[in-house]
Amino acid sequence: MLLPDSRVYVAGHTGLAGSAICRRLEAEGHRNLLLRTHTEVELTDEGAVERFFDAEKPSHVILAAAKVGGIAANAAFPAEFLSVNLRIAANVIESAWRHGAEKLLYLASSCIYPRVTPQPIREEALLTGALEPTNEAYAIAKIAGLKLCQAYRRQHGFDAIVAMPTNLYGPHDRFDLEAGHVLPSLLRRFHEAKEAGAPEVIVWGSGSPRRDFLHADDLGTACLTLLRDYSDEMPVNIGSGDDILIRDLAFLVAEITGYRGAITFDPSRPDGTPEKRLDITRISGLGWRPAIDLRSGIEQTYRWYRENCARETATV
Ligand code: GDP
């Protein structure tokens, strides 16, 4: 059972998802968080992971560590996205089980569903069709992680559960123009264009794909709900219940950042999957609802970006 003094290891605590999960755990009184940076425990190193679990014996493990990136990074570095994420999942799940963890929550991703599938996407759609090629390597690694959780549950009775988050955004994201996901990239691009008085901002692709965006703090509450109240091999979608056209997202980000110039779509950049809105019936049945609407979530993230990153990135 998850108690305030449970030894909870959050792998990936500096990232977008992991930092939000830690904020939620702390807000709910958890004082025994085990946190290690990348340099303290290299999760692709089997021996390092084994030594950490042997020494610390966490009771609960949240596996939010992953090599992640936007559509361009995924297409450019498939070897790393596949290999690094496979090794992280295999090492952490094995050591958590071997050292007696009570429960493990693995974060997969909505990109592991088939490229073309009925919307909103139900958990049962997994492995019913071909993947989106732009993020196939990442998706295959995440499917393997999910299957590891199911296999350890079946073979060893290990309480490993899987969450399928949609496209996340919020503080501690990577505001990188080339390697980042669409929301942090656009926030930075529109912000810098406004500051520089630039006449035009380029947005990748046709603008016609749809995406389901969830603030990372809503992911945090969802993960705690699952840790407390869910124990089954069926993965659980975590989404906003809604989606938005990338074109409309670009106009919304322009408005929030105060950019007043032109917006041009660049069809030479990939669109990726046409749509991936998650069906959230399963987690809604546990009483969870997202609390942060897209506009206020982007406004809050933009404030965070200006306070924490805008000065550094402006000089890059
Ligand atoms: P995806 O959900 O895996 O495709 O992840 P992304 O967040 O990288 O991209 C989402 C959508 O936003 C895709 O259709 C992209 O073509 C589009 N997009 C528009 N501008 C940008 C941008 O500056 N960066 C990224 N990453 N995507 C962009």
UniProtKB/TrEMBL annotation:
Residues binding substrate, per UniProt? 189, 204, 211, 271
Q: Where is the active site?
A: 138
Q: Give GO terms for biological process.
A: 'de novo' GDP-L-fucose biosynthetic process
Where in the numbering of this chain does the NAD-dependent epimerase/dehydratase domain appear? 8-239
What pathway does this protein act in?
A: Nucleotide-sugar biosynthesis; GDP-L-fucose biosynthesis via de novo pathway; GDP-L-fucose from GDP-alpha-D-mannose: step 2/2
UniProt binding sites for NADP(+) = 12-18, 107-110, 142, 165-168, 181
Write out the catalysed reaction. GDP-beta-L-fucose + NADP(+) = GDP-4-dehydro-alpha-D-rhamnose + NADPH + H(+)
* Gene Ontology molecular function, alphabetical: GDP-L-fucose synthase activity; isomerase activity; NADP+ binding
Feature type site, description Important for catalytic activity: 109, 111
> Function, please?
Catalyzes the two-step NADP-dependent conversion of GDP-4-dehydro-6-deoxy-D-mannose to GDP-fucose, involving an epimerase and a reductase reaction.
Q: Which family does it belong to?
A: Belongs to the NAD(P)-dependent epimerase/dehydratase family. Fucose synthase subfamily.
Name of the protein? GDP-L-fucose synthase
The protein's organism comes out as: Oceanibaculum indicum P24
